Amino acid sequence: MAKNAFRQALEEAIEQRHSAVHPWSEAWHSGKLNRYLLGEWVKQHYHYVSHFSEWLAAVYAQCPHEDVQTFLLENIAEEDGFVGSGDFPAVRHANLLLDFAGHCGVALDDVLNAQVNGELMAETLGLQSWCYRQTTRPFVEALSGLLIGLESQVPVIYSKTTPPLLEKYGFTEEEVTFF
Fold first, then answer.
1. Is 17's pLDDT higher than 60?
2. Distance between CA 130 and CA 116 in Å, rounded?
3. Centroid of chain to Cα 76
4. Of these four, 6, 134, 157, 165, which has the most CB atoms within 10 Å of its CB?
5. DSSP states along 14-65
6. What is the value of pTM for the model shown?
7. Cα–Cα distance for residue pair 29/23, rounded to 1 Å
8. CB of 59 closer than 8 Å to CB of 139
């Protein structure tokens, strides 16, 4: 199926600034980080991941297309651990990230309370705000931003950053289930 011009333009915009080539991802991939820094990353990432299903639910609420609503409900159910997919267990994705934090040596309360304790970076707060703002846009724009703009990057990022977790940082396969 040929991609329409809008989808093609979105994908080209993503490629120009893909997170997989961000200096942080490059440092991660090359083994320049340590478990402490990975744990600090979890503190930030959790406060994005843990809200993703809420943002999708807000878009679902305004979506007039049954097939898109079904897709969104399936995505929400998977994110929140109501169903699994493939080899992925039926566990809330954010909880798997919390498990990884523990393997990095970060206490659960430190991750959960990072926002209350003023530890979230401006970039994390900006991403939260942007995602929330997306939910108030017309559903096509909201889904384009949340799913194509953000979520479509995840497989490429994790395919690049997961092998070093095993090979360079010494985590076990079980410890990196989130990825």
1. yes
2. 19
3. 13
4. 165
5. HHHT-GGGSHHHHHHHTT---HHHHHHHHHHHHHHHTTHHHHHHHHHHH---
6. 0.85
7. 10
8. yes
